[in-house]
């Protein structure tokens, strides 16, 4: 468990959203969302079970959420919908809302994935902030989630502290 907490000592909130038509209609059991939820909980976040949304509905789900930055959790991670097929729209839903991009996080994530398989870079991802929320889109594979956790684990506490204003300069 980490010492991550908000200024008032409460656990910071997080949300995991899975873009998967097959998981949303019950023909496939998502195996990425629960891994991210478990990791976030172990890191001290207050996070509900992952929300699963069909690919075709991801923009309609994320756009209103991201437009109301005051009600966003401190961390929002998505998985799925980052490929290059016409129904992969998670990047398109998230990117216009990012106020500050964190391209270095994405580069580190893809470098880790590329070391395991060159195909890792055939997906897309964005990371950044919306208000005081860190947002990152991840491909919907277990390997990508494993790479994301390995990339974010040494960063997440400092990142949340910065969003909480604990490291303001």
TrEMBL record:
Residues 15-159 form the MoaB/Mog domain. Transmembrane segments: none annotated. Pathway: Cofactor biosynthesis; molybdopterin biosynthesis. Gene3D superfamilies: MoaB/Mog-like domain. The keyword Endoplasmic reticulum does not apply. InterPro entries: MoaB/Mog-like_dom_sf (IPR036425), MoaB/Mog_dom (IPR001453), MoCF_biosynth_CS (IPR008284), MPT_Adenylyltrnsfr/MoaC-Rel (IPR051920). Keywords: Molybdenum cofactor biosynthesis. It comes from the Bacteria. Pfam families: MoCF_biosynth. PANTHER family: MOLYBDENUM COFACTOR BIOSYNTHESIS, MOLYBDOPTERIN MOLYBDOTRANSFERASE. This is Molybdopterin biosynthesis protein. It comes from Corynebacterium atypicum.
């Amino acid at each position: 468990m980490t010492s991550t907490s908000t200024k008032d000592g409460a656990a910071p909130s997080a949300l995991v959203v899975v873009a998967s038509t097959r998981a949303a209609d019950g023909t496939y059991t998502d195996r990425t969302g629960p891994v991210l939820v478990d990791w976030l909980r172990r890191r001290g976040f207050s996070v509900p079970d992952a929300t699963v949304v069909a690919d075709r509905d991801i923009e309609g789900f994320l756009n209103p959420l991201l437009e109301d930055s005051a009600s966003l959790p401190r961390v929002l991670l998505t998985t799925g919908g980052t490929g290059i097929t016409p129904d992969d729209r998670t990047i398109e839903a998230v990117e216009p809302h990012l106020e500050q991009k964190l391209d270095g996080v994405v580069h580190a994530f893809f470098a880790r994935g590329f070391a395991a398989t060159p195909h890792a870079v055939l997906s897309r991802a964005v990371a950044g902030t919306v208000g005081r929320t860190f947002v990152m889109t991840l491909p919907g594979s277990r390997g990508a989630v494993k790479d994301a956790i390995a990339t974010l684990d040494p960063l997440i506490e400092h990142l949340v502290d910065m969003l909480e204003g604990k490291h303001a300069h």
